[in-house]
Sequence to fold (179 residues):
Amino acid sequence: MTAVGKLVSVERRPLLLISLALGIVVLALVPLHTAFRAQNAVLAHDDYLRPACRTPLHVFPEPLCPDVVAGESPATVAFALVVVPLVLGRSGRGGLLAIAVISAALAALQILAPLAFSFPAVNGERPSPFEAEAGCGLVNCGLDHTVFHLVQLPFLVAMALMGRRLYRRSGALPTDREP
Fold:
């Protein structure tokens, strides 16, 4: 059992495990995509590097990015592997509510991102989010981009629902009080 696992109560552990699974999946998906699916020409193109490595923040240098992390994946990994375990181990009801709300917001973003927040392919066209396109990669457009977001969705929905349930159990909401 990890040090964080010892700090987290038994009722909160399923939420911790889902969060850790999300972080590991997102951390593994980018290198797996790079190794087995990505095209080297796309990964090296400036039109791919901009959304993959410089948007929203330029966190990792480009020899490391886009092979290891891409797009918002560092933020998702930090939320799932650092923020949620720390909040679960050290906070009360407010932390559970924050996890639930942030997870729900991130889940909504995973649905909207392939449709509203895609970038053009390296050839300049913007293909459908449901078709594989030669000029697209994991974070800019096309089917790979859509799948990357939708893979995260069940984890985030589960975290939102479990966080809300734990929040409700930890104290009565105003609507739950008896007259």
